[in-house]
Structures are given as C-alpha cells and as structure tokens.
C-alpha cells in the first residue's frame, strides 16, 4: 500500500500538469481560422431546367477567416466547382430541338465580410454554441464552358459560337446566410448557402442569336435534323447567368493570432519559464 502512494502522487502531478498545459493553450487568444468544406453547386441560365432548383454538382472550398470585432469577421476563400446544362433535360420542346449542352469546371476566389447575429465572448472559446450569420463581398470567377463532341470535350469560348469574344475571368458578387455550431472549443461546424450574382450571360456559352456565319458547334440542332437559321434565337440575353453554392464546412482555430501592435503573426505557445536563464542559472542579457 505504501508503494502505491508515490505512484498515485506522480500520476496526479502529470494529470494536473497536462490539464494546466491544455488550459494555458486554450486561454490564449486565437484569431485566425482555417475553413474547409464540401457542397453542391447549382447553375441558372439558358441551359438550366427551371424545375430543378438544386443540382448535385460538386464543390470544394478552403479559406481563412479573421474576426475584426466580436461580431464582424472577414474571410477569403477559394472554391472549385462544376456546373452543367443540357437541352435534352428540358421540359420545353423548343429547347430539346436546339440540342445545346455544356459543362464547366470553375474556380472562384472571393473576399467577404461576415456579420454574426450573436456576439462572441471575450475569448474565442467563449463564443455562442449556436450562431447565425450573413455575408457579402466581391470575387473573381474563372470559367471554361465545354461541350462533348464525338466523345471528346471541346472548349467553346475560342470557337466564338455567337461571334462574341467574352472573357473567361468574370467578377461576381457573393452573398448569403449560414449557421454555425460550436462542436469543440477549437472547432465549428457551419452550413452555408450563397448566391452569386454575375455580370455575364456566357457561363454556358449561350446568350443571343446565331451569327450570320454559323461557327463550328454553334448549331447542334442540325445533328438531330433541326438546323438553325442565321439570326435565329439561340439564347435569352435579358437575364444574366447565376449560380448558387451550398456547403457544409469545418472551421478550426489555428494556434496563432494577429498582433494588432504591428508585429504580425504570433504563436500562442507557452513560453519556457527557463528561457530567461543560462545553463549556469544566470539571467540572460537582453
């Protein structure tokens, strides 16, 4: 029994030390959050089906977030996603005989501001268990619409199917809402839905009319016995294309914070209490 007493004391000391180390790491502020998630993307344009509100196209995102105040944060995020559309899936006969289709892998880089409904506590781990937020900002989108022809994917923008030379890089306005659930002191789970307003009608390479000289792959109706006429309606330019991203994300508080005194990033690691002394036990000169 007497032999067990020192073992119990040592175990208690190690347990206490571990808890104190963990508590120290937790009570130091963390202001930088890394985010990552998966979701779906849905396209709205000349080749989308109005009855299909949500698509199963994949999306992947990663980003960094920083709280400016207890309620306001800023975030930059990179998202890869795909969109597609096909006249064969349309309910209208006029669209089915047009026979156009496309698919596009895209990259979006954005910067947004985030406003939370409830304020965080004076420490990051004292944030609310549940919160709702809204976001809005600005982004750049890279698109590359393609269509499948004879078993191969062909890029449409270089073909100028409507005689228009549009850019593959487009500005977008992202905005939306989400909710956040605190899972652990360092981890949040978020579910977010965001709309993207674009300033182009060429996400799908379809917008206006067939040009006087119809280029290659501009008219796919001829493949099913319905050739187009020059100047005939090919798309609807009254409404610009748009897309929606719905994502489930994980937020993790990195062990760093931004020093607002102008010294940049600093780590939230515990300082060694013996770092001020030499090997002989004397104070180090500074």
Commentary on this structure:
With 286 residues, this protein is mainly beta. The protein has a domain at 30-89 and 100-144 and 166-200 and 239-267: Porin (Beta Barrel). It is built from 2 helices and 12 strands. An 8-stranded antiparallel barrel has the order 1-2-3-4-5-8-9-10. A hairpin with a 4-residue loop joins strand 2 (57-67) and strand 3 (72-86). The two termini are 51 Å apart. Residues 1-25 have low confidence and may be disordered.
Question: How is this structure best summarized?
Answer:
With about 290 residues, this protein is mainly β.
Sum up the structure in keywords:
elongated; two-stranded antiparallel ribbon; disordered N terminus; Porin; 10% helix; eight-stranded antiparallel beta barrel; 286 residues
């Amino acid at each position: 029994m007497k032999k067990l007493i020192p073992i119990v004391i040592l175990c208690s000391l190690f347990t206490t030390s571990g808890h104190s180390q963990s508590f120290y790491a937790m009570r130091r502020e963390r202001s930088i959050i890394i985010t990552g998630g998966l979701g779906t993307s849905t396209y709205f344009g000349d080749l989308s089906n109005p009855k299909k509100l949500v698509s199963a196209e994949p999306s992947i995102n990663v980003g960094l977030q920083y709280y400016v105040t207890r309620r306001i944060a800023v975030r930059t995020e990179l998202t890869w996603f795909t969109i597609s559309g096909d006249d064969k899936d349309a309910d209208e006969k006029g669209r089915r005989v047009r026979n156009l289709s496309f698919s596009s892998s895209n990259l979006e880089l954005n910067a947004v501001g985030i406003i939370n409904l409830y304020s965080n506590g004076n420490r990051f781990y004292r944030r609310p268990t549940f919160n709702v937020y809204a976001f809005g900002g600005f982004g750049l989108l890279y698109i590359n619409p393609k269509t499948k022809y004879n078993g191969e994917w062909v890029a449409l923008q270089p073909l100028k199917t409507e005689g228009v030379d549009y850019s593959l890089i487009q500005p977008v306005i992202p905005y939306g809402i989400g909710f956040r659930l605190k899972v652990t002191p360092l981890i949040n789970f978020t579910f977010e839905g965001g709309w993207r307003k674009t300033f182009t009608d060429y996400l799908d390479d379809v917008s206006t009319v067939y040009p006087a000289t119809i280029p290659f792959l501009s008219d796919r109706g001829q493949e099913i016995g319905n050739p187009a006429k020059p100047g005939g309606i090919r798309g609807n330019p009254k409404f610009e294309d748009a897309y929606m991203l719905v994502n489930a994300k994980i937020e993790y508080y990195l062990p760093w914070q931004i020093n607002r005194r102008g010294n940049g990033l600093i780590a939230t690691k515990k300082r060694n209490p013996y770092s001020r002394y030499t090997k002989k036990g004397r104070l180090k000169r500074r």
